[in-house]
Give the backbone structure.
Amino acid sequence: MITQSTSTACKTHTLKMAETDTSSFWDELTSPLNLVLIFFIVYLLYKIIRSQFETIEPVNIPPPMPKLRKDMTVAELKKYDGTNEDGRVLLAVNSIIFDVTAGKRFYGPGGPYSAFAGRDATRGLATGQVAASDNEYDDISDLGADEIASAKEWEDQFREKYHIVGKLLKPGETPTNYDEETDDKKSQ
Protein backbone atom coordinates (compact mmCIF):
# COMPACT_ATOMS: atom_id res chain seq x y z
CA MET A 1 0.00 0.00 0.00
CA ILE A 2 2.75 2.36 0.84
CA THR A 3 4.38 1.59 -2.46
CA GLN A 4 1.21 2.23 -4.42
CA SER A 5 0.48 5.55 -2.73
CA THR A 6 4.11 6.62 -3.17
CA SER A 7 3.92 5.74 -6.87
CA THR A 8 0.71 7.73 -7.29
CA ALA A 9 2.21 10.69 -5.43
CA CYS A 10 5.28 10.62 -7.69
CA LYS A 11 3.12 10.55 -10.81
CA THR A 12 1.05 13.46 -9.53
CA HIS A 13 4.18 15.39 -8.63
CA THR A 14 5.69 14.69 -12.07
CA LEU A 15 2.54 15.92 -13.84
CA LYS A 16 2.51 19.09 -11.75
CA MET A 17 6.21 19.68 -12.52
CA ALA A 18 5.57 19.26 -16.24
CA GLU A 19 2.74 21.79 -16.08
CA THR A 20 4.91 24.15 -14.06
CA ASP A 21 7.86 23.74 -16.44
CA THR A 22 5.66 24.44 -19.44
CA SER A 23 4.09 27.50 -17.91
CA SER A 24 7.42 28.83 -16.60
CA PHE A 25 9.06 28.32 -20.02
CA TRP A 26 6.25 30.28 -21.67
CA ASP A 27 6.45 32.96 -18.99
CA GLU A 28 10.22 33.30 -19.51
CA LEU A 29 9.86 33.35 -23.29
CA THR A 30 7.28 36.13 -23.19
CA SER A 31 9.08 38.29 -20.67
CA PRO A 32 9.72 41.83 -22.00
CA LEU A 33 13.49 41.40 -22.04
CA ASN A 34 13.35 38.14 -23.96
CA LEU A 35 10.83 39.56 -26.43
CA VAL A 36 13.22 42.44 -27.14
CA LEU A 37 16.11 40.01 -27.62
CA ILE A 38 14.05 37.79 -29.93
CA PHE A 39 13.00 40.82 -31.97
CA PHE A 40 16.64 41.95 -32.21
CA ILE A 41 17.79 38.49 -33.37
CA VAL A 42 15.03 38.33 -35.99
CA TYR A 43 15.94 41.82 -37.19
CA LEU A 44 19.63 40.89 -37.53
CA LEU A 45 18.75 37.74 -39.45
CA TYR A 46 16.55 39.83 -41.75
CA LYS A 47 19.41 42.29 -42.39
CA ILE A 48 21.85 39.45 -43.10
CA ILE A 49 19.51 37.69 -45.51
CA ARG A 50 18.56 40.96 -47.21
CA SER A 51 22.22 41.93 -47.70
CA GLN A 52 22.82 38.64 -49.53
CA PHE A 53 20.32 39.65 -52.21
CA GLU A 54 21.36 43.28 -52.66
CA THR A 55 23.45 44.17 -55.66
CA ILE A 56 26.68 45.90 -54.91
CA GLU A 57 27.21 48.92 -57.09
CA PRO A 58 30.79 49.62 -58.10
CA VAL A 59 32.41 52.50 -56.27
CA ASN A 60 33.95 55.12 -58.51
CA ILE A 61 37.49 55.41 -57.25
CA PRO A 62 39.21 58.45 -58.71
CA PRO A 63 42.35 57.70 -60.67
CA PRO A 64 45.56 58.22 -58.73
CA MET A 65 47.19 61.60 -59.10
CA PRO A 66 50.32 61.70 -61.22
CA LYS A 67 53.49 61.67 -59.17
CA LEU A 68 54.96 65.07 -58.63
CA ARG A 69 58.75 65.30 -58.80
CA LYS A 70 60.31 68.71 -58.21
CA ASP A 71 62.14 70.84 -55.69
CA MET A 72 60.23 73.75 -54.17
CA THR A 73 60.71 76.87 -52.14
CA VAL A 74 58.67 77.42 -48.98
CA ALA A 75 56.35 79.74 -50.95
CA GLU A 76 55.72 77.06 -53.60
CA LEU A 77 55.14 74.41 -50.94
CA LYS A 78 52.40 76.52 -49.29
CA LYS A 79 50.17 75.96 -52.34
CA TYR A 80 49.90 72.26 -51.50
CA ASP A 81 47.91 72.40 -48.29
CA GLY A 82 45.00 70.29 -49.57
CA THR A 83 42.68 73.20 -50.38
CA ASN A 84 43.44 73.31 -54.13
CA GLU A 85 41.31 71.60 -56.79
CA ASP A 86 43.44 68.46 -56.88
CA GLY A 87 43.56 68.25 -53.07
CA ARG A 88 47.25 67.36 -53.02
CA VAL A 89 48.91 67.66 -49.61
CA LEU A 90 52.67 68.06 -49.28
CA LEU A 91 54.87 68.67 -46.28
CA ALA A 92 58.60 68.83 -45.67
CA VAL A 93 60.69 67.06 -43.02
CA ASN A 94 64.45 67.63 -42.87
CA SER A 95 64.28 69.51 -46.19
CA ILE A 96 62.65 66.53 -47.96
CA ILE A 97 59.20 67.15 -49.43
CA PHE A 98 56.71 64.28 -49.10
CA ASP A 99 53.38 63.80 -50.84
CA VAL A 100 51.09 62.91 -47.91
CA THR A 101 47.86 63.05 -49.90
CA ALA A 102 47.21 59.40 -49.03
CA GLY A 103 47.06 60.50 -45.37
CA LYS A 104 44.78 63.43 -46.12
CA ARG A 105 42.49 62.66 -43.20
CA PHE A 106 45.44 63.44 -40.90
CA TYR A 107 47.29 66.17 -42.80
CA GLY A 108 44.53 67.68 -44.95
CA PRO A 109 42.08 70.44 -44.03
CA GLY A 110 40.36 69.67 -40.74
CA GLY A 111 42.81 66.90 -39.86
CA PRO A 112 44.69 66.79 -36.56
CA TYR A 113 48.00 67.59 -38.27
CA SER A 114 46.66 70.07 -40.84
CA ALA A 115 49.05 72.72 -39.47
CA PHE A 116 51.85 70.84 -41.27
CA ALA A 117 50.15 70.81 -44.69
CA GLY A 118 52.07 72.86 -47.24
CA ARG A 119 54.83 73.68 -44.75
CA ASP A 120 58.12 72.58 -43.25
CA ALA A 121 57.02 70.32 -40.40
CA THR A 122 60.51 69.51 -39.08
CA ARG A 123 60.47 71.76 -36.02
CA GLY A 124 56.91 70.82 -35.04
CA LEU A 125 57.53 67.09 -35.36
CA ALA A 126 60.89 67.33 -33.57
CA THR A 127 59.48 69.26 -30.63
CA GLY A 128 56.13 67.49 -30.47
CA GLN A 129 54.17 70.67 -31.13
CA VAL A 130 51.53 70.60 -33.83
CA ALA A 131 52.69 73.83 -35.43
CA ALA A 132 54.76 74.39 -38.52
CA SER A 133 57.19 77.18 -39.21
CA ASP A 134 55.89 80.25 -41.00
CA ASN A 135 59.43 81.42 -41.76
CA GLU A 136 60.68 81.63 -45.32
CA TYR A 137 63.14 78.88 -44.47
CA ASP A 138 63.42 77.32 -41.02
CA ASP A 139 67.03 76.76 -40.01
CA ILE A 140 66.74 73.95 -37.47
CA SER A 141 70.35 74.19 -36.27
CA ASP A 142 69.12 75.42 -32.87
CA LEU A 143 67.40 72.07 -32.12
CA GLY A 144 68.93 69.74 -29.54
CA ALA A 145 70.32 66.27 -30.29
CA ASP A 146 67.14 64.53 -29.07
CA GLU A 147 64.97 66.77 -31.23
CA ILE A 148 67.14 66.17 -34.30
CA ALA A 149 66.95 62.41 -33.66
CA SER A 150 63.16 62.69 -33.35
CA ALA A 151 62.95 64.58 -36.67
CA LYS A 152 65.10 61.87 -38.29
CA GLU A 153 62.72 59.18 -37.00
CA TRP A 154 59.79 61.08 -38.49
CA GLU A 155 61.65 61.40 -41.77
CA ASP A 156 62.26 57.64 -41.83
CA GLN A 157 58.59 56.97 -41.18
CA PHE A 158 57.57 59.31 -43.99
CA ARG A 159 60.09 57.66 -46.34
CA GLU A 160 58.49 54.27 -45.70
CA LYS A 161 54.95 55.47 -46.19
CA TYR A 162 54.90 58.38 -48.66
CA HIS A 163 56.32 59.35 -52.03
CA ILE A 164 59.25 61.80 -52.05
CA VAL A 165 58.51 64.82 -54.23
CA GLY A 166 61.85 66.61 -53.96
CA LYS A 167 63.77 68.84 -51.60
CA LEU A 168 62.87 72.07 -49.86
CA LEU A 169 65.10 74.77 -51.29
CA LYS A 170 67.02 77.21 -49.14
CA PRO A 171 66.92 80.84 -50.32
CA GLY A 172 69.15 81.19 -53.37
CA GLU A 173 69.48 77.42 -53.94
CA THR A 174 68.75 76.15 -57.46
CA PRO A 175 66.32 73.28 -58.01
CA THR A 176 67.32 69.93 -59.44
CA ASN A 177 65.95 69.21 -62.90
CA TYR A 178 64.53 65.72 -62.40
CA ASP A 179 63.54 65.33 -66.07
CA GLU A 180 67.21 65.51 -67.11
CA GLU A 181 68.14 63.11 -64.30
CA THR A 182 65.73 60.46 -65.56
CA ASP A 183 66.83 60.99 -69.19
CA ASP A 184 70.47 60.44 -68.12
CA LYS A 185 69.53 57.21 -66.36
CA LYS A 186 67.63 55.96 -69.43
CA SER A 187 70.59 56.56 -71.75
CA GLN A 188 73.04 54.63 -69.51
